[in-house]
Design brief:
Blueprint (H helix, E strand, L loop, with lengths): L2 H39 L12 E6 L5 H10 L6 H10 L9 E6 L4 H8 L9
Antiparallel strand pairs: 1-2
Helix pairs in contact: 1-3, 2-3
């Protein structure tokens, strides 16, 4: 074999490897993005109605979305604090949370929890 053939074989091999790595990276990133989007828009409760447990949560007026997501995650009311944070950001309840003590349970979806936390003590929507 001459040097030209060897260079061509190495060049083609390198191109195939670069393309394969690129496809793998795109597939992995797409898969993670789909899973993240699915978790945000397909709301699921932490547990079923039969296995639900109630938890008292006290929030202050002006609580930030990140603080609320961390609080509910620490109390075991949401599965993923990052997903819940983005659910808050994308919801109609952003910046409408009313300070107080609330009883939430693990069978509630994130939207149901946000609805409760954005209502005054009278139970009416703001």
């Amino acid at each position: 074999m001459n040097k030209k053939s060897i260079r061509m074989i190495l060049g083609v091999s390198l191109n195939v490897i670069v393309i394969a790595v690129g496809v793998f990276i795109i597939f992995t990133a797409g898969s993670k993005a789909y899973t993240f989007g699915h978790n945000i828009f397909d709301e699921e409760a932490v547990s079923s109605e039969a296995q639900a447990r109630e938890t008292q949560v006290t929030i202050s007026d002006g609580i930030t979305s990140k603080q609320l997501a961390k609080l509910l995650y620490d109390k075991g009311l949401v599965k993923d604090k990052t997903c819940f944070y983005y659910q808050i950001i994308l919801s109609d309840y952003k910046d409408k949370f009313v300070g107080g003590t609330y009883t939430l349970n693990t069978a509630m979806t994130p939207t149901e929890m946000m609805k409760v936390l954005s209502c005054a003590d009278t139970g009416e929507d703001k």
